[in-house]
Amino acid sequence: MKAAVITFPGSNCDRDMHVALERATGQAPLGVWHKDTTLPDGLDLVVVPGGFSFGDYLRCGAIAARAPVMNAVVDFALRGGLVLGVCNGFQILIEAGLLPGALMRNSGLKYICKPQALRVATHDSAFTAALGETATYTIAHHDGNFIADAQTLDRLTGEDRVAFTYEGNPNGSLNDIAGILSENRRVLGMMPHPERLNDPALGGTDGAAFFAGLVSSLETA
Amino acid sequence: MKVRVDITLKPGVLDPQGEAVRHALGALGFDGVQGVRQGKVIELDLATEDADLAKTQAAQMAEKLLSNQVIENFTVTVI
């Protein structure tokens, strides 16, 4: 699997993402800078990692979503490419219009950083097909409170596009939503960080299973 | 020409920061604050001296970047 990881000024999970992808695929992912206007050829996956792109100025992800590279990422997604956005990456994909809704300040107003139990809400995507019913990934965010209007929520639920829900809602997200899929099920945005629970030394390996599962579902597809 | 863009949360969108401010006001003894909604003010200094053009440009900026229309409304005022 050929993957690329986008780095913005203020990204801070890009290196963890590189390590997780290299372990799962046996191939180092390519690094793409936010000012690049094209993506490398032949990619299977583009990852928008977590962090505090552009200092979270204006709104989380708002400036990064308008960075030069994002036109190429949107094109890639519209052509059916697989795109994963984690945490700030999820915020960026929403701001770029690839996913619906908005991510607001946590209802408790506090930055939360802890392992978080999740339910895998659908297995109908390359990202989640190989996963079990539950998983624990790290959450680390101040603005993960997912909101959308009632019509959008109904669509997400009706089209089975909620990918992950929280077990014990940490941030006030409507319907406990932790991650959602695009209409074509090829774009996943999620607040939890699978790349951060990627080694027993880090406290867990559910994240390693997430990336291994993605690789295996692409191989069998 | 200077233009001000006021950005406010849409009605019905929960505002946890506004709620925290409301509680803090209560703790300071300001009774009777029934609601607080927090927003943003952005002042733009535009090259044009045409007020209509300035308003149009600012509205386009607000639609494309300054506000998130999923959760926010904006108004543009020439100042």
Biggest interface reads:
A-B, 19 and 11 residues
Low-confidence stretches of chain A: none
How do the SSEs of chain A run, as a string of H and E? EHEEHEHEEEEHEEEH
Q: Structural class of the secondary elements of chain B?
A: alpha+beta
Q: For the largest sheet of chain A, list the strands in their spatial order.
A: 2-1-3-4-11-10-9-6-7
Give the overall shape of chain A, derived from the CA principal axes.
globular
Measured as a percent range, the helix fraction of chain B is 25-40%
Number of contiguous helices of chain A: 5
**Mean residue pLDDT of chain A:** 96
Please provide the count of β strands of chain A: 11
Which blocks of ≥5 consecutive residues of chain B have pLDDT under 50?
none
According to CATH, what is the class of chain A? Answer: Alpha Beta
In summary, what is this structure?
The complex is a heterodimer of chains A (221) and B (79). Chain A is 25% helix and 25% strand.
Structural commentary:
Helix content of chain A is 25%, strand content 25%. Chain A is an alpha/beta fold and 221 residues long. Chain A has a single domain, classed as 3-Layer(aba) Sandwich (Rossmann fold). In chain A, strands 2-1-3-4-11-10-9-6-7 form a nine-stranded mixed beta sheet, sandwiched between helices. Chain A has a two-stranded antiparallel sheet with strand order 5-8. In chain A, helix 1 crosses helix 5. The model of chain A has no long low-confidence stretch (mean pLDDT 96). With 79 residues, chain B is α+β, with helices and mostly antiparallel strands. Chain B has a single domain, classed as Mth169, Chain: A. Chain B is 35% helix and 27% strand. Chain B has a three-stranded antiparallel beta sheet with strand order 2-1-3, covered by helices on one side. The longest helix of chain B has 16 residues. Chain B is elongated. The mean pLDDT of chain B is 95. Chains A and B meet through loops of A and helix 1 and helix 2 of B.
